[in-house]
Write a structure and sequence with these properties.
By secondary structure, this protein is an all-alpha fold. It has two domains: 178 residues, Transcription Elongation Factor S-II, Chain A; 176 residues, no CATH class. 54% of the residues lie in helices and 1% in strands. The chain contains 19 helices and two strands. It is globular.
Amino acid sequence: MASVLFINPMSNESQKILKENVDLDSIFEYNQELVDTLSHIGEGILDDERKFPNSYGKLVLKRIEWYFREKNDKDFKTSEYSYFFNESINSFDVIAFHLCSQAIAFKYNLSSRETKLFLESEQRIIEERLSRVSNEIIENLINETLNELLSNFTYLNWNDILPLIRSKKISLKNLLLYKGEIILDEDEFEEKYYTEMEDWPHRRIEMAFNRLVGHKTKELILTQLIIENTEEYLKNIKEKLQRIQIHPSIEKLSNEIAELLDRLNDKYSKFYGEGGIFGGDEEIGTLNKNAFPPCVNNTIEGVKSGNRNDAIVLFLTSFISYGRLNPQVFRRDTTTKISDFDPDLKITTEEILPIIHEAANNAVPPLFEDQPQEKINIVSKLGFGMHDDIKIENEGQTKWYTPMSCDKVKLHLTNLCKPDKVCKKIGNPLSYYSYKKWLIKNKNKEDDE
């Protein structure tokens, strides 16, 4: 029977597992017990031991790889990672979750793309595991998990699940509410509404409760609570790291996660890829993060208050949009619009804006928290007028803002300008990007020969 631990890696039971089984000095060492467990699951890729994660460190990396590939790889096969959905892996996976949490908190900002990917992966694991639990035990598992999660709540108010309501995954009208309290327990339902159904037989009460509060609502709420607890856990780790030194193994793991994400981004991501080449007719392609100039990377990683607005709204918005869609803008003596390169605006909404918004979230403080109007200014700088959203009918109301020169960056965004040796040959960040892509592509050719 599936346990709460299978769904909630921060359950009460997890602390005992961590205390008895974690030796940080050995997380990269071959783990025979882990290999034996995977060998006996008998699913998916487990006929090929070379693909086994044979240490806790590799299990962490597989966790991340699984979610990234599921999200971005059109040839992805769930069976390659089926062991994550077998309860035999419980204790190993709990340890991997906590090791990954520490590495992510050490390496990345809480609002970074990498942290969000980790949280999304945990949410996806919970959803997939719940979908695989048999009908005979799903009710007990959900109730047991929820009871533990709600042990610190006097009661659950509808305000406590605002993220689910805002995302439209749950509607207020579909919740069973009593004076603002969300009713998720059958006994509590009977207690609160006793006067309305005091003559009802228990079977009728049970049927009414199950119709009003289905599995899906409970699953969504328990998943949100686990993710919120995970976010709080990352925050606590971050705060502790200000007072204590990170263990070398966790630092090593964080670097391996970063290297893995770079490889996965290059291979699968719709945001970043090899892109085009440097030359007279540069190919338009996915963005190559490794070719970004230092000023762009510094902006994405997080700008401090003072020049957040110019760095993100003026500088980054133009760089990312032209870098993705029209990298040869300064070689072409023509006025262009985004729709000339992105007719259905899918690239703009699904690739360009997420990177700009990531930088806004990484800013200190996050840009949109105290200046939400800057979302409109970003839309304006992309050429779609002063509106909340990008719509084709608004294109041309404003001009698609072209990228700043290096001189302007030095003058107005001094703290972002940290020149490297390539910068000395370049007069514009976009030219740096094209040149650096050319260097990378030619180096790769040399390596292949």
